[in-house]
Structures are given as structure tokens and as C-alpha cells.
Amino acid sequence: PSDLDVLFKFATIASKIRDLEGAISALERMLLVDPDLPRVRLELGVLYYRLGSYEVARSYFEMTLKSASLPPDVKSRAEQFLAESEKRLTRSRFSGEI
């Protein structure tokens, strides 16, 4: 369970076969081994987003963006998914007059 490469491969395969909970579990174990993995936090956010858990996804995207060792591609994806999560969490308001 402490081999990060094996855990990441498992998470990738689980995600591809739509076992999102299994992928989430593997990625969360990775963070227990090494909590400073912004790409893993991003992938966790994406998986929670795909599950429709937008609040949890948003928290992972925010944590990703606070990382000191944030690669530019990870930052860009996290910002995009954060914006989409915010849209999903915002209640729409509709008003009009006749």
C-alpha cells in the first residue's frame, strides 16, 4: 500500500473502468504516504466532480492551487475545474415580468 507507482496505476485503471470509489481510495492512500502531491489532489477533485460531489471536488481544487510545488499544467486544470465546480454549486435564479 505504500508503493506510490502501484497505487497510481491502480487508480488509473479503476478510473478507466468507472470504479471511481476505488480510484479515490487509492489516491487518498497516496496522500497518506506523501501529502504534497498536487497532481494527486487534482485527480481526486476530478473524480469527486465526476461523482457529482462538487463541494468536495472544490475543496480538492482549492488545496491543489495552494501547493508550493504546482506545475503549470496542473494549475491550469485545477483552475478550470474549480470554475466549473463553482458553477455547479451556484443556484440559478430566474426572474421576469409579464
Task: Describe this protein's structure.
The protein has 98 residues and is an all-alpha fold. It contains five helices and no strands. The longest helix is centred in the last third of the chain and has 18 residues.
List keywords for this structure.
98 residues, mainly alpha, 5 helices, globular
List the helices and strands and how they pair.
Blueprint lengths: L3 H13 L3 H14 L4 H14 L2 H12 L6 H18 L9
Biggest sheet descriptor: none
As residue ranges, the low-confidence spans are none
Order of helices and strands: HHHHH
Structural class: mainly alpha
Rg, nearest Å? 15 Å
- Taking the alpha carbons of the first and last residues, their distance comes to 63 Å
Percent helix, as a range, is: over 70%
Q: Helical region count? A: 5
Shape: globular
Strand content: under 5%
Number of strands: 0
Oligomer: single chain
Average pLDDT, rounded to a whole number, is 88
Q: What's this model, at a glance?
A:
This protein has helices at residues 4-16, 20-33, 38-51, 54-65, 72-89. It is mainly alpha-helical. The longest helix is centred in the C-terminal third of the chain and has 18 residues, at 72-89.
